[in-house]
Amino acid sequence: RIEAEIMAKEIIGATLEELYGHTELTLSHLVSRYGNVIKIENKTWKTKMAMLMLFMEFTGDIRLSKISPSLCQEFIIELPGRKIKQATVNRYIATLKHFFNKAIDWELMERNPMSRIKKFREAPRMRFFSSGELDRLITAAHQMSQENISHNQNMFYYIMMTAIYTGMRLGEIIHLKWMDIRDGNFLIKKTKSGLSRIVPIKKELMDVLRELPTTDEYVFPLNRRSSDVITKIWHKVRERAGIKEGRFHDLRHTFGSNLIKSGVDVVTVKELLGHSDLKMTQIYTHSSLGQKQRAISDLDI
Question: Could you tell me the CA-to-CA distances from 14 to 24, 60, 69, 81 in Å, in that order?
Answer without folding.
Answer: 11, 16, 27, 34
